[in-house]
């Protein structure tokens, strides 16, 4: 391992940049948007639908995120939860963070018709459409947002690769949408497994951490493409344990929902 931030070149060097063409082609834009609707999906997740005014729309790849900009706060990152369809609508799933300044504002004060700005699309967590490998998608909490974008895009483009979705939450109340079940019922190639880490007594499904759920179902992960999105600890657990069970690093894509807290606003 080399810590490149600690290295100094002693001579001329050639750098090879592994640039992702499909992302490089997309312009990052700063656009105004209006809050079209706000809906509390459960005790700590709010769905916000933003509308970009006029005929404008944001070009992005399924899985990417935007920075949400409000004049009273520093920008906060949220993944886009709807598939790219040029509709001018952006759906976000925002989890309320204890003592979190912006997410508490969203939960308690943000109103429909408010004006915000978004900057994006950003990030290299996006669905690799050219691949033919079966896909394992792992979402932790609101990590379902970008995974929803990927699955809706896969359904819209009639993708026939096998898709295994594992959604990890604490208890049943945290499964804030019924859509995953619907996707699995309506599409033969989509399979859905919820995994609860702190289940109530009535729960009969999988329990434990979501990455353990995948590991127990797939003995050999060699042939799979794996996408993981959600809390940093979950993403880290997937990255470190899946390689031992055959996952090839180049077939692993992730977005960790780290906090942007800087001590300012
Ligand atoms: C690429 C990316 C995509 C993301 N996508 C999503 C998504 O789709 N949905 C989603 O719900 N989240 C997502 N997140 C996470 C989201 O950005 C954060 O939850 C959000 O920024 C928290 O903002 P906040 O203002 O509420 O919290 P902050 O006020 O920034 O606080 C964050 C943390 O710092 C702590 N803190 C606050 N004040 C203090 C203090 N004075 N001293 C010490 N600690 C303090 C808080 O308790 C909290 O734990 C994403 C993050 C990234 C990086």
- How many separate domains? 2
Q: Report the helical percentage.
A: 10-25%
Based on the structure given, which CATH architecture of the largest domain is correct?
A: 3-Layer(aba) Sandwich
Name the poorly predicted regions.
none
Distance between the termini: 36 Å
Percent of residues in beta strands:
25-35%
Bound molecules: flavin-adenine dinucleotide
Rg calculated over all Cα atoms = 19 Å
Main-sheet strand order equals: 4-3-6-1-2-5
How many strand elements? 12
User: Any idea of the CATH class of the largest domain?
Assistant: Alpha Beta
Q: Could you say which overall geometry the principal axes of the C-alpha atoms support?
A: globular
Largest pleated sheet: 6 strands, antiparallel
What is the string of SSEs from the N terminus onward?
Answer: HEEEEEHEEHEHEEHEHE
What is the number of helices?
A: 6
- What is the arithmetic mean of pLDDT? 93
CATH topology of the largest domain: Rossmann fold
Structural class: alpha/beta
